[in-house]
Amino acid sequence: MTLRLLLLLPFCLAALAAEPDWPKIQAETLKHFQALIRMDTSDPPGNESEAANYVRQVLEAEGIPVKTFTKVPNRPNLVARLKGNGSKRPILIVGHTDVVNIDPSKWKEHGPFSADRAGGYIYGRGTVDDKDNLVSCLMTMVTLKRLGVILDRDVIFLAEAAEEGNSSIGAGFIADEHWAEIDAEFCLAEGGGAMRRGGKLISVNIMTSEKIPARAVLKTSGTAGHGSVPRLDNAIARLSSAVEKAANWQPPMKLNDTTRTYFERLATVSGPEQAARYNGLANPDRSAAIQEYMRANEPAHYSMLRTSISPTIFHAGYRNNVIPAAAEATLDIRALPGEDLDAFFAELKRKIGDDQVEIQRQPLGRPASPVSRLDTEMFKTLEAMQRKHYPGAVTLPSMLTGATDMSYFRAKGMQCYGVGPLLDVEELEKGYGAHSDQERILEDELYRFLRFQYDAVVAVSAHN
């Protein structure tokens, strides 16, 4: 054997070993996934220690170092790192260990922490929010380590606590007090996923932006008295008028790089009428009518176009024959990235037009954060992985109308992308999605998502 061949042999062997044994990995993924689903990490009250300890043990058994950061007892955040050669900045992959709480009486056929397998599905709280991402991140780290993949960038895994209830002890705590442990160029976390209707792939949504909770409380007061004597300054009547004006106000449409590209690409996989609407949003002659149509028929798309207002809570009165002295209502306001909130609230006050109605702004639910770019190596890689693993679909950069903990990372300049497994549109319409009373995931789609994420991480991190 020549010297040249001898020198090349280790690299050839590494290349041969680089393809994972997917059937074996999938069996191990199922084992860990079911174990994690069977752990009650409901938030509230929040006790993620059992799941965190399980993840730690799996990682440390593979020789992967783990650090623990805890602000509140029994609610640890884990950070694991596979070192690269430092020629590129790190990538961060994230899953959260807590799940939303449940009403046991609503789980009829399969228990909320059963991890039952039936009809091709796995049932249980957290199957699609967010222990699917959690186990995918775990197995990505394990597989990279076992195969000895040579990395140009560190791969960091954050298993965070408290995403569902109090991010200040989870991602917020890590971002504010331990940023150096997770500082990265790119981040992959929850918030996206493939969509299929009637068995046909439609899209792979990559969440590149999210709205920011900017809630407010409207307060007013009046003269208290007997309900038999109507008063012009009735606090409930005054407040009701203000709430109606707020709910009926349509802040102006504002498209950003994500939403503009989203509707352009969505038009390519939509029927003629829908495509005409999506392509017509920027047409001044058609836009207003299209927005009204979306307001009535596609409320999620309508919300993507503007900062939105939804009245959610009303407090007033204590007896049916007493006019109360005060009343208040909560507005769930979701602000577009880059929204000038001072100007927004000034306009809201003008729309209400009543100096006797006080607008109390609440602290932002998460930090305001910019839109992640579409021209990065990471986004282009996710597009390529869509073509490989979800052929026939289209990659849609999307803006989440809700919120995730990636806002903490985007606010510090990290380019973050939300990913997730495939969900059938019919499943969502039947109420089998996240936070539902029969949350479930297609087992095969859990495995396909793992392969998608693993390949994406390898493509941007492995040494060529």
From TrEMBL:
InterPro entries: ArgE/DapE_CS, Bact_exopeptidase_dim_dom, Peptidase_M20, Peptidase_M20_dimer, Peptidase_M20A. Gene3D superfamilies: 1.10.150.900, 3.30.70.360, Zn peptidases. SUPFAM superfamilies: Bacterial exopeptidase dimerisation domain, Zn-dependent exopeptidases. It comes from the Bacteria. GO terms for molecular function: hydrolase activity; metal ion binding. Residues 214-356 form the Peptidase M20 dimerisation domain. Residues 1-17 form the signal peptide. Its cofactor is Zn(2+). Keywords: Hydrolase, Metal-binding, Signal, Zinc. Belongs to the peptidase M20A family. This is M20/M25/M40 family metallo-hydrolase. It comes from Paludibaculum fermentans.
